[in-house]
Amino acid sequence: MHFPRELSWLSFNGRVLQEAEDERNPLIERLRFLGIYSNNMDEFFRVRVADVKRRILLKKYHSDEQEDAEQLLQDIQHIVLKLGERFNKIYDHLQQELKKHNIELIDNYKLTENQAAWVKTFYRQEVQRHISPIILSSDEVDLGKQLEDNATYLMVEMTGSGKPGYAIVQVPTDALSRFIELPVHLNKSKKRGRFRRQIILLDDIIVHCLTDLFAGFFDFCEVQAFSLKLTRDAEYNISDTLDQSLIDKMSKGIKQRLKSEPVRLVYDAHMPDHMLKMLKKLLGYSSNDALIPGGKYRNFKDFIGFPNIGHASLEFPPMPALKSPQFEAHTTSFDAIRSGDILLHYPYHSFGYFTEWIRQASFDPKVSSIKMTMYRVAKHSRVIQSLIDAVRNGKQVTVVVELKARFDEENNIHWSRRMTEAGIQVIFGLQTLKTHSKLCLVSRQEKGKLVKYAHVGTGNFNEKTARIYTDMSLFTCHSDICDEVDQVFEFIQYSYKPYQFNHLIVSPTWSRPKLVELIEREIRYATSGRKAEILLKVNNLVDQQIVDLLYKANMAGVKIRIILRGMCSLIPGIKGRSENIQVISILDRFLEHARVYVFHNGGETDLYLSSADWMTRNLDQRVEVGVPIYDASIKQQVLTMLDIQWHDNVKARVIDRDQSNHYVKRGNKRSIRSQQEIYDYFASLHQDLS
Question: Which residues are catalytic?
Answer without folding.
Answer: 436
